[in-house]
Amino acid sequence: MHRSIGLAQRLPLRRRLAVVLGTNEIASAVAVLLRKTGWDVILSYDPLPPVLRRGMAFHDALFGDPAQLEGVAAHRIDFILEAFQVFARPDRVAITWLGLTELLVLGSIDILVDARMQKHAEKPDLRGLAKIAVGLGPGFFVHGNCDIAVETKPGLNGTILTSGITEPADGRSINLGDTGGERFMRADMEGRWRTSLDIGVRVYKGVVVGHHEGDPVRAPIDGVLRGLVRDGTEVPACAKLIEIDPRSGRAAKWTGIDDRPRQIAAATRRAVEIYENQHGLVRHAPLYQ
């Protein structure tokens, strides 16, 4: 007589698992630091907001393109069991279209990090879905919808909250060179974005960078394309479509982990350590530095 064996019984033994919601530059920086600290990491795609700084993120690996940050590469998985082939490599993280509910079949998630940066959306209660639920950015309430939180607002970037509510978004952009919000172009309505350009291309004010619902979108200033939503993406109204880095020469940056995501990622890793210490959880030894 044969007994049915559930998926959880057939899964191979693993180290501790971190699920990061989001595939943007902050989610990707968090994934890199957690992986280097010894965690198995899966990034789960969410369509909102569209990923802008793709050269600083693992996002394009979802489409089969190479994506690597500081020696760690992302590999797309389409089925749960494929994750364990990725985890066998200390220099790999998994990235997937699968949502959190589908990933819960893996069993106990040790860390769940909401790095989607949905600044104005109401946040779901993540507590109980993992041993530690970490909220990044606006809209998180420690002991309300997460276990511990990290500020992402300029001036407070990387501050860890063990109680209270994270600061709301104020719509202000961090200065880059001599520019603020004027370096971005946004969608004025919901629709499809098309572009033939790539991240890192130099453009000049007035040049058509792409088309949104057939209407041309022009570069607002001279500089390098630091951010560019992927061609063919359906975007909501007000979503950022392009970002120009006005800095000249080597000062311009459109690849790798930038200072702000690195600070947030380091704070996330520290937040996990704080929570583990407070609740007597066993800390995991690093695989490599």
Largest sheet: 9 strands, mixed
Give the strand content.
Answer: 15-25%
Low-confidence stretches: 1-14, 284-289
Mean pLDDT: 91
- Provide a count of the helices: 5
Summarize the helix and strand pattern as letters: HEHEEEHEHEEEEEEEEEEEEH
Would you report the number of β strands?
Answer: 17
The order of strands across the largest sheet is 3-4-5-2-1-6-7-8-9
* Overall outline: globular
The structure class reads alpha/beta
Helix content: 10-25%
Q: Give the oligomeric state.
A: single chain
Termini separation: 49 Å
- Return Rg in Å: 19 Å
What does this structure look like?
There is one protein chain. The chain is of the alpha/beta class and 289 residues long. The chain is 16% helix and 24% strand. The chain contains five helices and 17 strands. It has helices at residues 7-10, 25-36, 83-87, 100-103, 259-279; strands at residues 17-21, 40-44, 68-69, 72-77, 92-96, 111-114, 132-136, 148-150, 160-161, 184-186, 191-194, 202-203, 208-212, 215-218, 223-228, 234-235, 240-245. It has a nine-stranded mixed beta sheet with strand order 3-4-5-2-1-6-7-8-9. A four-stranded antiparallel beta sheet has the order 10-17-15-12, with no helix packed on it. A four-stranded antiparallel beta sheet has the order 14-13-11-16, with no helix packed on it. Strand 4 (72-77), helix 3 (83-87) and strand 5 (92-96) form a beta-alpha-beta unit. The longest helix has 21 residues, at 259-279. The N and C termini lie far apart (49 Å). Residues 1-14 and 284-289 have low confidence and may be disordered.
